[in-house]
Specification:
alpha/beta, 28% helix, six-stranded mixed β-sheet, disordered C terminus
Length: 385
Amino acid sequence: MIEAVGLTKRYGAKTAVYDLSFRVRPGVVTGFLGPNGSGKSTTMRMILGLDQPSAGHVTIGGHPFRQLPNAPRQVGALLDAKAVHGGRSARSHLLSLAQLAGIPAQRVDEVLGVVGLQDVARRRSKGFSLGMGQRLGIAAALLGDPQVLLFDEPVNGLDPEGILWVRNLMKKLAAEGRTVFVSSHLMSEMALTADHLIVIGRGQLLADMSVKEFISANSADFARVRTPGTEPAQREKLTAVLTESGGQVLSEPDGALRVTGLPLPRISDLAHGADVRLWELSPHQASLEEAYMRLTQGAVDYRSTDDRLAHLQPPLQPGQPGYGLPPQPVAQDVPQQGWYAPPPPGQNPYATAPAPGPAPAPGPYAPPAERPGTPQPSDTPKDAR
């Protein structure tokens, strides 16, 4: 299990992660979501000991990553699939990692078969496509047969067959009782893969719940109603009747009506009583993408001026029914200072908590996300996505 407590990371005057606490439990696929710049990559780097937290701590199985004996056999990670020496073959790359961790060479051939690279095992990695590089990174993460796995955008560059393979792999690993933590921007894929979600925005926790609970808490179900397009008077008549009966009616670009506050049988009865013909009356439940967009609208730093998300209802405000955020300060209410300034310090039980103790110097083995020749952990963020 991965446990973060009051996790905070500052780079000078800028804060990438602020007072972040969560648990990633074994046996389920946990999705890690958030807009670009929300601190996902920084958080994953702190989990793997590549960045030192400014406050708080994070443990894997109750211990900081750097204190785990023979970490590659306990934790596997894919953070950057390109962090491979281009002159090495796929097999040579994995073999060097295996030798450093005391893993038999036979395991190298096994994972190459698992990811489907057995036929190109002796080709230099600089000739690999983006998808092949992703498969090699996943192979490195699986090399030690670890119980804890972290993947950052594992389906990036994969074709549909590869995406399906990764989805099934994640589910299989979780079904074996492993802890699987997956960061992705593909909402449709997360809806099919993840069982639980942790969502952050501007470095703060926005949601920590199951996929089903997340969609329910951050979306409003509605009925889609359509009248004959050649009879606009009937559409106006139905709108008036539904509004008088307590419904909320919004017009959609294609001419249909979005109705909330009334069950479908009641809408049908009201239309029948008003002598209005219906061409469509169907229930609608928001997708994970819609629920995610609704929750994170205020935490997006880069948005096109042509995209107003007009098809989404305004985000719920505190006190409104269905408001699903935890009781904590929201990032969009924080005054800006540089990139992101945290809210004023409050009663944070973790702010002054001592660190778990001095971490021993890392061993000669770099975790799969860190390859020979890559920069060592520093106070400069690699990617504050």
